[in-house]
Fold this sequence. Notes:
Layout (H helix, E strand, L loop, with lengths): L12 H22 L4 E5 L26 H13 L4 E5 L9 H11 L2 E6 L4 H4 L8 E5 L6 H6 L4 H15 L3 E8 L7 H11 L2 E6 L23 H16 L8 H8 L8 H4 E4 L4 E3 L6 E3 L5 H5 L2 H11 L7 H10 L3 H13 L20
Parallel strand pairs: 1-2, 1-7, 2-3, 3-4, 4-5, 5-6
Antiparallel strand pairs: 7-8, 8-9
Helix pairs in contact: 2-3, 8-9
The protein binds iron/sulfur cluster (2 copies).
One iron/sulfur cluster (SF4) binds next to loops.
Amino acid sequence: MSRAASPAIYHGRTGNVARYVGLFSSMVRSRFVTGRPFFLAHATTFGCNSHCQTCSYWKLTPRMKEDLPTAEVFSLLDEAYAAGMRGYYQFGGEPLIRKDVGTVIDYARAKGFYTAINTNGSMLAAKAEALGSLDVAFVSLDYFDAYHDVIRGRPGNFDEVIRGIDRLRALTAAKVTLVTTISSLNPGAMERTAQLAKDLGVGIAFNSIEPTLDFGLTDSDQSPNLKFQLSPEQLHQFYVTALRLKREGYPLMETEEVLEGYVADRPWKCEFPKMFVYVTPDKKIYSCDYRFGYDLKTGSFEEYFSSEMFRSHVRSAEACNRCVRTCVRNYAYTYELRPRHLLHLAQNAAGLYRPGTTAAPRRPAEAGAPS
Ligand code: SF4
Ligand code: SF4
């Protein structure tokens, strides 16, 4: 499908409001009625062009031949929309290595999805023009200078990220948030990377390193990146530092309530399986801990959400506090509609995306494309 045939970038402000309302309504419906996910988290490719020391997904690149063709990605989006989902989040691998990334994001947006992508930034400048339908870009950056390239095993990636963000913000209205993973390779990087985010006028989210696995090759207990994990003392210091930075006004995505919970080691209830359904490049649903796979090629979202497999995942998640990803607790507090947390999120939304040093956001449609 050519970009000219895609209706997505022709959505105006009314379309945006409808999509935001649709996303919020689908969350409320999930919270009070269905208990089913409203966000499709789609790993669109097994391929990646980085060699991060803290991740093993790049080893899956030969499995790119299992990635769904464009038409089947469209069908997946149709199925997800019919099942009540209104958020579409692309990750990988590296999603920008797919030739159809812009076309798929266009399709999702035209369908009515809120659209987000997680990228290593390597191809952001080259693909920015195709991403006019993107709402949010999460861009990985693990250090405030070119040492990032060493962690990521990709020479020049720091410069690619900075250039890519600049280009994306010049050509689209997408919001940008850095995602910084803290491991034993960069434990002291937090404050200066937060300062960089502030200087760029973008948000920043901090995660500590977590296990990754290569599907079918190892399991999470054997994850090779665990050799870079933080000690319990370092992990505690990670949360203490994040809370301090947040209170000092750096543009962290995490709310104070979430970070206070980590610092005080308060238990929390994971709502992740009720919010996100995680689909692999070959169209399988995996649990967050990769303990099962459900084949959507032979089944359906409806069948999966009605299954004991799904229900037991929801039950086990509610008792699971294992995640070190701060975003998961952030999502849980949002789902639970905690008033102080929601107030802080609203403040984030108002303050995180101040205009930076780049040109004012501009959609391709406003620059002369058909509307
Ligand atoms: S962290 Fe992301 S960019 Fe790095 S190897 Fe893994 S999938 Fe690729
Ligand atoms: S806290 Fe547990 S159930 Fe929730 S996302 Fe993390 S690993 Fe999964």
